[in-house]
Every structure is written in C-alpha cells, then in structure tokens.
User: Fold this.
Amino acid sequence: VQFVESGGGLVQPGGSLRLSCVASGFTFSDYVMIWYRQAPGNERELVALIGVTGRTTDYADSVKGRFTISRDNAKNTLYLQMNSLKPEDTAVYYCNGRPKPGGNLWGQGTQVTVSL
Assistant:
C-alpha cells in the first residue's frame, strides 16, 4: 500500500491549490477515501471524505464551501480543490482510505502554507 500526495505549496490568503493523492497496492475503487491534515502541535484531523463512486461527500465545518473533494477511480487518484485559503489551513495534508488499507501506514503528506 502506498499513498503519494502532491500539489502543496506556499500561497497567499484567498488563493487556491489543488492537491492530488495517487494510491496503490489496494483496490482504490472499493474504498471510501479521506483527506486529513495535521498542523504543528495539533492532532491529525479529517478534512473531507468521499464515497466509493464519488457521489457522496462530507466536509469538516471549517472547510465547507471552500474545499471540494473528488476522485478518479480509473487513475487511482484522489483530489482536493482548495479555494479561499486561510492561514489556519496551513498544515501537512494526507490521504488515506476507510478502513485504512495499510493499517497505520501513511504517505509523506504535502505541505500547505498560507501566508502573506
């Protein structure tokens, strides 16, 4: 099982980023997929969730209306479109399945920094 997250970077408040997560080693289309984030000193938190077909989504209250999760099962890829970014969105972003297909295995994450 492997997760490779990418697309992070430094962006000004109000800006946008699109994160990607390429998954391998399990049947991606069988799994609910989730984006998490972890800010320094904080626990990892759920940001957005998407069902196996992509028709069902859910978001943390803090990102509703600003972030959009999507998936491409043909490419084993999960996406997170992040708009109207705020400094409090600064964190390392990770993806994983539910249940976690690799147990406690995580990717390296992708750093998102929102700052002037």
Notes: The chain has a mean pLDDT of 97. The first strand starts at residue 2 and ends at 6. The beta strands are 2-6, 9-11, 17-24, 32-38, 45-50, 57-59, 67-72, 77-82, 91-98, 110-114. DSSP finds no helices and ten strands in the chain.
